[in-house]
Give the backbone structure.
Amino acid sequence: MEYPRCSYWHESADNKIEVNKNKEDLKEKKFDVLIIGAGLTGLTTAYLLKDIGYKIGIIDGTTIGYGVSGYTTAKITVQHDVFYDYLINSFSLEEAKQYLKANEEGLKLIRKIIDENNIQCDFQEQTSYVYAVGDTELKQIKEELEAYKKLGIDGFYTEELPLPNNALGAIGVKNQGQFNPLKYLYSLYNILSNSDSCEIYENVRALNIEPHNGHIDVSTEAGTIHADKVVVASHYPFDDSFGLYFLRLYQDKSYVIAARTTEEPFEGMYINIKDPVYSMRYQYSEKENLLILAGGNHRSGEKENEEDCYKELEDFLNTNFKGAEIVSKWSTQDCMTYDKIPYIGLYSKSLDNLYVATGFKKWGMTHSAAAAIILRNKILNMDDDFSEVFNPSRITPTQSAKEFFSSAKSIVTGFLKRIAPVPEELLVVDAGEGKIINYKGRKVGVYKNENNDYFCINPVCAHLKCSLSFNEAEKTWDCPCHGSRYDIRGNILEGPAVKPLDKISIKK
Ligand SMILES: Cc1cc2nc3c(=O)[nH]c(=O)nc-3n(C[C@H](O)[C@H](O)[C@H](O)COP(=O)(O)OP(=O)(O)OC[C@H]3O[C@@H](n4cnc5c(N)ncnc54)[C@H](O)[C@@H]3O)c2cc1C
């Protein structure tokens, strides 16, 4: 199956892989550990388990690198915006220490894997900066620096910044990193596929998880797979029978541009605090050095016209990097928890052999590696002193309330749209447009291409029946509730949905 989206990482990863496992062989197969999802989380977890003596199966619903890991900006850092002051004040110093330590271990693990295997993924050590463009944010920067002191983070304040926009001051953390995430992911795949303990299958979507006494059955498009332990590394946990993740997560989208600039590339990785947020860094490779600029953040499904987000980013580029030439642009979304800490550990406290890692809130490079360590430890019954803060069964109403109530608005809108009457003017669909129309008393999602072919689907998400919106920029049907995305034919591009949309037959 061909997938339409592409990022600079897909264009530049010269170690492309070919997965040739036959999915027919999967039927009734038994593994010690089955990992669902072959992004950075899934493959790093498999990497840590490959020499234990377990038989490990890895399945991915699409192709390797097609998840968020292939669309990220790939800053590998423990500096996650301004966050440690929030953690200390809303949780505790002890929990902030755990969060930091897990991410430090994640950063160390990525470096170790690259060194041990001599992986050529354009890894570079960099200083990470979070910067302020206004006085209120400058105050936040100073508070964050105090939090660094309490936690022993070796950070520093500076006003000497090479950025073209009006940055007032920043905190830096040295010895962080950046890389080409797909070159790294493909190398992980090559290492795992050469190991006798791992079998990796693409285009096999897990549909349902059924725990039994001592083992789990996972039904997939290729039949049922049996495993003693199952890791759900599918980005958004797709099975709603346990854990209520659909109530505890939302997705947030960002847009990315890779551009050739006329100025000399600057060192360092940068992000500012307050909206509009712009993340900037250069990607250095043997071939060329490109600016990687990200921004335009919004909750998935909330923007009427996503082209506006690209436009905002392009305006920023043209104003601050005169003469820049766009090489590639793309968008993607990440899972967010309401209390801002990922869920890593047991999927549900009632099941001791089902694990999950999600909610990395756009800081998934160190978090995916930290998750691999935590899940490895849990699977092998090994203790550590940093996993408790990520416990997916935690209850944090005070810390979660603000984000939850603002997200509830989108979810309710998504559900309500389902029953709202469709206005008359939606009946005309122009070429290149997608709209929801009323056809013989029912709602139909219609996309018309430049050749006047119509693609008609039921515009109701196959996950939890929210109403879908058409994303003009990417020609996809997007769910505002939990972030599932479908192409114009209704095929799944991103979960948590596990079934495609129903096609509807309609005459022109
Ligand atoms: C715009 C943007 C920029 C970012 N930049 C950074 C950054 O600079 N630094 C940073 O640390 N983090 C960043 N992140 C976050 C980071 O990219 C992600 O958190 C991380 O890549 C998630 O990895 P993953 O393996 O958990 O998910 P994915 O890479 O999405 O992998 C999940 C896999 O599971 C598969 N799957 C899904 N459902 C099923 C199913 N039912 N059955 C089988 N397979 C399934 C998918 O096909 C996919 O391949 C960014 C995120 C965004 C949105």
